[in-house]
Design brief:
It is globular and about 50 Å long. Helices cover 52% and strands 13% of the residues. It contains 11 helices and 5 strands. β4, α4 and β5 form a beta-alpha-beta unit. The protein is of the alpha/beta class and 223 residues long.
Amino acid sequence: MRAEPIRVLIADDQALLRDSFRVLLDSTPGFAVVGEAGTGRDTVRLALAERPDVVLMDVSMPDLTGIDATELICRETGDVRVLILTTFDLDEYVYGALRAGASGFLLKDATAADLVAAIRVVAAGEALLAPSVTRRLIAAFGAQPRPSRAFHRRLAGLTGREREILTLIARGLSNADIAAHLTLSQATVKSHVGRLLTKLNARDRAQLVVVAYETGLVTAAPE
């Protein structure tokens, strides 16, 4: 169990929402709010200065969008994770956020319990990809032409088992689901996932999903 509180930076252009998130997290054991930001540039500045575990990032922000701010933060840090919050359940935000390096995507109408759980998942280094988000991601990639040679170039160093597990990750399966599907132990699956992260230079599970679709390893199923 984690001994230190999860350090969170709240980024939203609406003061009322920032206050609500702060009250929620301040009243929940195991969390510490280390700052608030109302603009994209302030979010980047505070994230680089405070190095929180998780940034709660609104998509629509003044002077720099949440997706652009996410890209800057992920480029400059290796340990700050971003959980995107938005009222818009649109493909462009799902793909843009994950492509920028976000570890999760959550709609603002989620319950307080869902938000707290999401922060814990992202802080632990996992990806938060709800089934609805995964379906939209599949649709977004399915509409794009697949590169002809990227598959062999990016994935040439993977074993057959690693490609199989990467495919299942991209389909939205958890480690437990993958273990059951392939009749492996969860410890073995976790080891494979760790090797995939290293070989593909991916920050986390969300980035593995992006790699799987961008390289053409996984494509959208026909309707």
